Here is the input.
Amino acid sequence: MVKCMKLLGNLSRGINPIQKRLLYRSCTLLIALYSFQLWFYNRAPMSYHMKALNKMQRRAAIWILGAFKTSPLEGIEVLAGLILVKSHLQKIAKRSQIHPFKLPKNHILNNLLDDSPHQFNSHNMGSLTYRQKVPAKGHLIDSKFKSYGIFPSFSPLNPKFAPGQCIVDNFSDCFSFNLANKKEKEKNNHCTQELDEMVLRNSSIPNTALVITDASIKKDIATSIAHIHSANRPLIKTVHHASFVTSSEVELFAIRCGINQACSLNNVSKIVVITDSIHIAKKIFNPGLHPFQIHSAAILNNLWKFFIANDPNSIEFWECPSKLKWKLHHEVDKDSKSFVVTPSFPSKTSWEFCKKSDSNELIKLWKMTFQASEGKGKNFLKLLDDDLNVVKPSYTKGGPWLQLVGHSNLLCAQATRAITNHVPIGEHRLRFFPNSEFSCPCNEYPIESRRHILYECKRFNGYWNHRRDTLKHFVMFLNANPSAFAFNDSLSSI
Here is the structure.
């Protein structure tokens, strides 16, 4: 399939490198890794499969970048924004291992993973003896070991999400969302003024409860705080701590606690929730499958009782970005960051945190091994980002290199060959063709090397120097000097 994709583009015409990478990742890679759970698991022989997949990805990277076939694999993979095949398999395998948490408890997979012995079910893991469990291996075995450290967060069969019974179908006019305009900076004062007017308008109504929520995370310890203001009532504060959860879960839990306290107050007909995570608040009314369903179900249960109690009862959600530093929300924000909590071990993690942490660990390991690995090539050119730090591998949006050169096939090939030092210059010819001419045409250096072209050669414009060796300046140099690091017979086509 990778061979056939070469028909879609080359160095002079066809789709650009960014489109090539997108086609490979969204089509070819998914087909190649279909049903990978059957052979990729702990203690499984996989050398044959990995060899074939590495060969496929090498061909894809060479096609995307227009690199030489002699280019080092890890170097061109990083330039193309492609994570190592083995690392990618580990990431999707770990995600696949926690997928049974999305399923109902009576699903067949959960029955198989159940390790408690049942007389009526002889096919679950609980029916295996110790001798049978030790040699057992497979994707389901790995999934069972993974499940011990995760607490459930899905509730797919909850009646609150059933069609016809959810709040969206029955009380669609009882809740509303008010979003802040984040695109225009001059409208920050307008947002603050709207919030002030809203508070003044509702503070005069004795049956209104104002709920202000925020959350913060320090060293994997989350703090969620909600302040509940109501006329003629003392301020109510709720503070909760949790470990190994994501910021989205903590924000939603803070909203859950605030709404629970507001619903428990007497003679309250309107609840106003002010949060800086309005997109998380919308998850409350989303009946689809998502990892916050337990919190959503608890909130919907309180709101259902609140709406039924009296027809005029309603709830409003207002967005207040933290950068506004609006007085009431800023107090909650400072309060959430003032706690110093020590984690308690052992502790289970949330489904979303487990998914995120596994991915972050693999990316961190990929970055560390790339810096120390010789697979990228001994002459891989180290460039700096805008903060003057060494550019690190990433596959987000194509990676840092492809984002700058991925719009042009010729520029991408030129940059790839220069960075990997597999380039048609005298230094390369001296290594592979020692009998050919290898001196620089400027006649001022015996060997035409990459360093000479970048720093000293008078044939090219001086957009490059050793004090500004950033990736952007490198791309500027290539744009200003299209003949650098290019074949001599290609100059007429540039």
Q: What stands out?
A: The CA atoms of residues 83 and 395 lie 6 Å apart. The first strand starts at residue 175 and ends at 178. Residues 99-147 form one domain. The two ends are 30 Å apart (CA to CA).
